[in-house]
Amino acid sequence: MAVLPDPPTPTLAAIYAAYEAERGDGFREHLGASLIGKSCERALWYDFRWVTRARFPGRILRLFETGQLEEARLVRNLRATGATVLEVDPESGRQWRVEAHDGHFGGSLDAVAIGLQEAPKTWHVVEFKTHSAKSFRDLVAKGVTFSKPQHWAQMQIYMHLTGITRTLYMAVCKDTDDLHIERVNVDAAAAGRLLEKARRVIAAKRPPARISEDPAWWECRFCDHHATCHAGAPAEINCRTCLHATLVEGGWHCARFDQALDRAAQHRACPKHLFIPDLVAGQVTDAGDDHVVYRMADGTQWVNDARDGAPC
Ligand code: SF4
Ligand code: SF4
Q: What is the value of pTM for the model shown?
C-alpha cells in the first residue's frame, strides 16, 4: 500500500494562508503593459473587465515574491559593474511609470540605467525576470524576442512611452542562479501596433473573438479565463462586468446611477448589477427595468433579476 504524505504542519499552512489573504483578488486598475503581448485579445478584455478572480495557492504567491526580492540583488549586481541604476524616478520618488489611453493602460519599469559596459552613454530601460531552468534554457537558445514575446512586448511599450531606445533585459535562472543579459532595441512600428491593440481591448464593449473555439487549444488550457470563456462559468460580480458601467477618461462611470465609480465602488458593485449579456452563456429573450431574461444553452430560462435590489 502506498505511503500517504504527511499533512502540512499548521505553521506551514498558516504561512501560505497569510500569502493568500494578502494577495486580494489580483484585479488591476488598468490593462497592464506586462500582459499586452498575450496572443488572445479576448483574454486581455477579460483581464481588464475583472471577469476572473486570480486564485493562486500560497506557495505560488511566495514564488512570485522570490522574483520580486531578486530584483534588489540584480540592481546591486549591475551597480557593481559601474552602472548607474535608478529604481525610482528622482522627481517623484516613486517607481517609473508609463501610461496611455487616459490612464487605462500602463505599467511600471523595474529601473532605468546608464553607464552600462555595452553602451556607457545610452540610457536603458531595465527589465528583470526570473525563469525556471527550462524557460531559461529556451531563453538562452532563442533570445527574448522569440522565447518570451510577452516580455519583449512589455519592453517595447516601456521604450516607446519613455522615449528610451534600448532595454537591458536581465534574466536569472531560479535553479542555478545563472544570469542572461540581452539588449533590446526599440521597434517603433511594433510598439505602435501594441498600443493600438491596447486601445482596441479597452474600447471594446463586448469580448473580442476567441483565439480558438477549441477548449483544448493549448493557449486556452493555460488561460485563467477558460471556465467562463469556454464552459459558461459565471463571471465575477463587480462593476466592470455590469452592463451599466462605461469607461470614461481616467476612470469608470455608472449609467444606472449617473455616478463616478472609484476602485472600491467597482469592487463592491451594487444590488442593481446586471451582467454584460456576452458574459452569460445564453441568449437574451427579454429585458426590462433591472432585469434580463436568458434562454440558456440547455434550454432552461434564467432571469438576471435586480428588481428587488436596493439602489446604491
Ligand atoms: S480560453 Fe482561450 S479563447 Fe478564451 S480567453 Fe482564454 S485564450 Fe482566449
Ligand atoms: S448598477 Fe451597480 S454594479 Fe452596475 S455599474 Fe452601477 S454601481 Fe456598478
A: 0.91
